Amino acid sequence: MASYVLKILNRDRAYYEGEVASTVLPGGKGSFGVLARHAPLVSTLEAGLCKARDSAGTLHTWRIGPGLVETALNRTTLFLDDPPQLAE
Predict the structure, then answer these.
(1) Which of 17, 50, 61, 73 has the most CB atoms less than 10 A away?
(2) Could you tell me which residues come within 8 angstroms of residue 79 by beta carbon, excluding any fewer than 6 positions away?
(3) What CATH code is assigned to 4-86?
């Protein structure tokens, strides 16, 4: 499966940067998914779960607060108000 770069950060530092195959995010009007070569997108994020599956099939899950997401040029960046928390 094709992959792209996911980066999760807030104003203090980057918390994650890696190659992923898919991401599901909590948008303002419901959850939405991002795959490789997604059309350019800027959207708000609500508090909820961010789920990213890497190329090896491992699922990474974080609890995130509100923020923004930008997708362009096979890169998705989450700009969060607060640090993400690993979810179990």
Answers:
(1) 50
(2) 9, 10, 67, 68, 69, 70
(3) 2.60.15.10
